[in-house]
Each structure stands twice: as C-alpha cells, then as structure tokens.
Amino acid sequence: MKKLLRWFGTLVILALVCGGIYWGYCKYVKKTTVTRFTTEPVTRSELSSTISATGTVEPEELVNVGSQVNGKIISFGVDSDKKEVDYGSPVKEGMVLARIDDALYDAEMREAQAQKLKAEASILSSQANIDYAKAKLILADSNWIRAQNLYPKGAMAKSDYDNYKAEYESAKATVAINEAALAENKAALAVAEASYDKASRNLGYCTISSPVDGVIIDRRVSIGQTVVSNMSASSLFLIAKDLKRMQVWVSVNEADIGSLKVGMPVEFTVDAFPDAVFYGEVHKIRLNATMSQNVVTYVVEVSTDNSSGKLLPYLTASVKFIKDRKKDVLCVPNAALRYRPAENLVPEQYRAQAAEAATLRSGKERMIWVRSGESIRPVKVTTGLNDGVMTEIVSGDVKEGEEVIVGTTVVSSEQVASSGANAGSPFLPKPPQRGRRR
Prior knowledge:
Elements (H helix, E strand, L loop, with lengths): L1 H28 L3 E9 L1 E17 L2 E5 L4 E6 L13 E2 L4 E5 L2 H48 L7 H48 L1 E3 L4 E6 L6 E2 L7 E6 L4 E9 H4 L7 E6 L2 E13 L4 E3 L2 E11 L10 E18 H5 L12 H7 L7 E8 L2 E12 L3 E6 L7 E10 H6 L20
Antiparallel strand pairs: 1-20, 2-11, 2-16, 3-10, 4-6, 4-9, 5-8, 6-7, 8-10, 11-15, 12-13, 12-16, 13-15, 14-15, 16-19, 17-18, 18-19
Helix pairs in contact: 2-3
C-alpha cells in the first residue's frame, strides 16, 4: 500500500511539472498571430501623367566668335562696365573684344596699295602712248592716201610708195599694241585693287568685334596667345545673345518620343535651386537620333522664360513632360490596385469576386478591396490617369473617405494584448506613441 501511494505521489508530481512546463510554453514560447490590414483613404486630388527625363540648360542663341586671321593676341577690349572683357562681361554689337598683332597685315596692305598706285600709273602711261600712236597713225594715213594718188601718175618713186604704206601699217599696229597694253594695265589695276581690298580686310580682322548684344560666357584665349585661323582653333569667345530666354536640351528615350508634341507643357527642377519649379514648353523635337549602348534617344528642345536670371547655362535639369493633368479627381494609391488578399481573409460571399480579381491585373478595369466594418469587400472599378503613385477612379462603388486595403501585417498575440483593448480590430488606429518618431 505504501508502495502504491509512493507511485501515485510520483505521478502527481510529474503531472504538476508537465503542466507547469506546458503553461510556461504557452505563456512564454508559443505565440499566436493576428493579421492586420493596412489601409489608405480614398481622396480627391490633382493628378498628372508625366514623362521624366534629364536635360541641360542652354542659352537660346549662342554666337561663337572666332578669328579669320592668324596672329598673337596683344590686348582685350573694354566691356559695358568699363572693365576688360572677361567671363560674364556684358557686350554690345560692334564692341571691341580683342586685338591681334597687325604689323604684318599693315605691311601687306601698304604693299598692295603701292601695287595699286603703280597699276594706275601704268594705265595713264598706256593712255598717253595710245594718243601718241593715234597721232602718228593720222600722219601715216595722210601720207599713204597721198602716195596712192601720186604713184599711179608716176610722180612718186616705188620705194617712197612702199615706205608710206609700211609707215601706215606700222602706225595701225602701234595703236593696237598700246590699246592692248592699256587693257593689260587695267587688268593689273583690278588685281591690285583686289589685293588691296584683301589686305585691308585682313587688317580689319585683327580687331575682333562683337557681332551681337549679349553676355560672354566663355573666353578661350589669353593675351600673348597665338591664334590660328582654322576650323578647330579659331574660337575666341562664346557669346549668349539673350539669357532671359533659355532652352533645356532633353534626351528622350525612343519609347517616349511618340508621346511628345510641340507646345506640350513642361516642368523641371535644377539642383542649384531644389525648391524652385520652372515651367516651359516643347519648342522643337530634333530628328537626328543618337544611339548609345543600343539605346536610341532624341534631343527635345524646351523653351523657358528666365527673366529672373536664376537659370545659368549648362545646369542639369530634371524634366517632366506633362502628358495630361486633371484636378479634383477621385483617386486611390497604386498599392490598392496591386493588393490581393489571402484566401483565408476573404469573406465567403466574396470568393467569386476574389477569383475574378486574379484576372484583372492590367487594363482599365481593376479590383480593389474596401473596408466594410470589421471585414473587407471587393469593388470593381474603372481606372484613369496614373501618376506613378496614385490612380484616378473613373467609375465604381467607392466614395471619398472610404478606406482601401493596401497591404497586411502579421503581428503576435502579445503585441495585440499590449496595444490595448481596441487592438482586436485590424482597422482601428493605434494610440499615439509619445516620445517616438512617427
């Protein structure tokens, strides 16, 4: 009997130990989970459909001022502020920008001028020779006529007759020779005048003047530097004609270029002024595409007003082309269109709609899930404009202020218990957590 009681006591102790272990497991180890729904309200707001790209701010019109002659820069001109021409100098049309050493060109011009004067003197000499030859021709002609009358009558020897005839022919030839010399000297004068004009023009090119009113945004030479007049090294200054009108040259992917058209509104920002939004419109779509790493892009010119002077040349711009814009439209987060509840979370009466929602993953007709008391219900909607974050609801049984499901969160039973009595509802908001960042 004592042995039986001892075994019974042992069993009781073991049962108590096992019960304590199970109680500890349930309390400290085993944790149940609860699914919470994450919701967002249906709102009314402004939506824009945009195409994003990157571009560079450029002056609307640039003038590249070069040199048409070779030589050494000996000085710079003075700008509108009475300072030596430099970066950012305001200039007027005709203002002197720089001077090239003109000693050689001045010598060439004086040489050409001397050749011109020589040719003019040769013309005067030829003209005098012609007059002299014509006078001799008149005398020779008179003698020849007289010889023709006297010789047949026997009043003149044959030798005299031949002499008069030879003198006449020689005088005619002399006039022709002098007239040819005059023509040659006139041609020489024309050549001398052309050489003089060329030398004079080259001498004038030694003074570099501004062709337009504007601002110098680049000075590419220094005093003492020798410039060479050719296609690759003749650029001296880069002048922006008007910085109050700017352009943004935007590289647009070939997939988006078909959506752009001239006059389309544009918004863009620059890193220099991150809080400012600038506005413009598409001015031109260039047709000469470029390819880089098998990606084809087109350059689109966007015109914008820069009366404030904030925009500087060559700033990088983040551009948005506004394809469409609507104000005060009913919209939901895009996450609500992507959300699909687990099968165990769908009420029995909505199982058919849940199956249909699986087929509505693209297109205008979509299925969203809306809070309905302590449960959820599906709503079939027709979507419209999409800005990448929110989507317009064109039609469907959904109203402003309703809560749409955008996701779920699984929490432990301990977290539910610690959050208070209201934690059992997956839709009720949590109480504010003081001292913690939201």
